[in-house]
Amino acid sequence: MTMRRCVQALVVAILLFLVTPVLVVIPMAFSSSAFLEFPPPGWTTEWFAEFFRDPDWIDALTLSLRVAGGAMVLSLTVGTAAAYALVRRGVRFRGATQGFLTLPIVMPTIVYAVGAYLVALKLGLVGSELLLMCAHAVLALPFVLLNVTASLQTIDQRLELVAQSMGARPWTAFRSVTLPLIAPALIASALIAVVISLDETVVALFLTEDTRPTLPVKVYNSIRYDLNAVVPAAAAVVLAGTVAIAAALGLVRWVIARATGMRAGAPAGDGVEIGAGEPETGGAR
Amino acid sequence: MSLQSSAVRSEAMRQPATADANRGAIGLEQVAKSFKGAVAVDVVDIDIRPGEFVTLLGESGCGKTTTLLLIAGFHAPTSGRVTLDGRDVTRLPPYERNLGMVFQNYALFPHMTVEENIAYPLKRRKLGRGEIAAKVARSLELVGLAGYGKRHPRELSGGQQQRVAVARATVFDPPALLMDEPLSALDRKLRQSLQDEIRQIHRQLGTTVVYVTHDQDEALAMSDRIALMRGGRIEQIGSPTDVYRRPRTLFAAAFLGDANLLRGRVVSSAGGTAVVELRSGTRVGALADPEIAAGREVTVVVRPEHLRPADASAPGGAAVRATVEDVTYLGRSICCTGSFESGDRCIVPIETSGATEFPRVGDTLHLSWEASLATLVADVDDHDGR
Ligand SMILES: Nc1ncnc2c1ncn2[C@@H]1O[C@H](COP(=O)(O)OP(=O)(O)OP(=O)(O)O)[C@@H](O)[C@H]1O
Ligand SMILES: [Mg+2]
């Protein structure tokens, strides 16, 4: 076989591997059988109805959403502040600091989970929503940091200086100049943080109480202990939620890009003549 | 920040162009700045009058930008005092100094339209919408960009972007405008037309301008006064003619334009004219300097355009002989370079108009100059002049 054929085969294999689980779960969510048979003997939306009727599933879902929201806000705030300090201020041991903050990428989650559990146990904080938020924020932090750092590095430092010379206090200068310019990176980071938290299972398994699990933890417990037919529906809900959030944030990002004229690959427009009321050739392409 | 000081601040920022005699005055008193022990500005003393156009000129790394940022308040001086409008502002943060700033790379806000960029300082001053719109329109007019307000900076050429930067830095009527190499990213032709525009805006608004450049021609063309900087100090400050014609050091003489530098010793200094004996033994004249007594080793600075072909015996200075080593044709003139009998480098421009015969390599020229146009400098460059 040629090299090209090999690569093609590999791509197909990877796609199958990625897609097959999804292709199994979604039909199962609509299966009329209560015994997780594949292929499904018939179709129904009963399991979704049951999912949304059952207060336990709803509690798990809302807990997951709250934790994801909190983790997003926390990691975004801390990550942006850290990135700003690393890029703009003379931070000592810059390399070491950045390395330390991005450690969660390479650290085995199970190690982190056990450690967090032991600390939580000592402090009597097992089951604390806030603690779980913080733990998820830590897991998301590296991605926020890398994204925002890369974005800040493309922005001319003098913009804030010029803003200050025109009367803007440092915070105002940051808010009115730097923040809008890094907004696309912030949105991407927010998305990553939410997705990381929404389906994070290992740490959540350790830090939640059995009676108040997050959605993925409840999915795991259900499939292990009662082989509940709602599980594929719950998984489908997680999937749909993730896709919806991604789409929503993508839309916001596109709207911002349009509003600020920061379209990638827009013409430089050197020496353009004044066109009386000529409309911007934006987006419509 | 206390309430009181922020009230004082908005008061200061809103103040219209009143008849305050000190408005626009800038002073640096014994200002020094070092970064972790590395000296960027050694000692600078400068007193800029209201409405004056002062250029900081010097080589890369001599401390021009640092000096400008000290005035703007982005650096705190290691020692010394900074005054604005006659008040001590050494401890005042940049956003309370009310100064316009323009950078080389324009530093326009890419996410705002031209109008929004120019409105930025007005919004910080909490002006009303109508007033902002009117001022922005007037400012766009001033820089010749009426009709461009709705564009984004990206959609403008470099020259247009720099005009927007100037509009934005002047729209709030600051008493002084600080510009750091604003034109150095532009090509030569555009640079010249923008030089004229900046001068015109300066005349029209009457603001003080502190202008940084490393381009001597730009400095000579634009400034009321030039502060020539070197190694974190001001080497010489004065009007362009003053600095050009009367350099006080070898560095100043060599930095601003071409110069013939002839080494010698002062023989006598009387009646406003000094007589200097060159290394070749020839005696030449120069404007006497009361601080340079007879017997001193000196350098005589003669600008190329002040050299004349010597007639039989020119009054005030004997002819100096020079050998032509290279001839460059420049169109309107030709430029001969070579060396004087004394060994010093020689550079002579010769007008081509009317002349039919030009010097050739190897020819000997007899040159002299009006003694009052030659300047004495107490430094001597001991390297051989080539
Ligand atoms: N923030 C800083 N930290 C450390 N050193 C600095 C800093 N700013 C300037 N310097 C040093 O101070 C000296 C003067 O710098 P400055 O930027 O004022 O030079 P300049 O005259 O503006 O040069 P150029 O024409 O290249 O812009 C340089 O040696 C520079 O390396
Ligand atoms: Mg500089």
Automatic annotation (TrEMBL), chain A:
Q: Name one GO biological process term.
A: transmembrane transport
Gene Ontology CC terms, in alphabetical order: plasma membrane
Q: Give the family per the record.
A: Belongs to the binding-protein-dependent transport system permease family.
A Pfam family that the UniProt record links to this protein: BPD_transp_1
Membrane topology type, per the record? Answer: Multi-pass membrane protein
Q: Where in the cell is it found?
A: Cell inner membrane; Cell membrane
Q: Which residues form a coiled coil?
A: none
The membrane-spanning stretches of this chain are 60-87, 99-118, 130-152, 173-198, 229-256
Instruction: Please verify whether the record's keywords include Zinc-finger.
Output: no
Native source species:
Conexibacter arvalis
- Segments forming domain ABC transmembrane type-1: 61-249
- Keyword vocabulary terms for this entry: Cell inner membrane, Cell membrane, Membrane, Transmembrane, Transmembrane helix, Transport
Q: Does the keyword Phosphoprotein apply?
A: no
Name under which the protein is recorded: Putative spermidine/putrescine transport system permease protein
Q: Which InterPro entries match?
A: MetI-like, MetI-like_sf
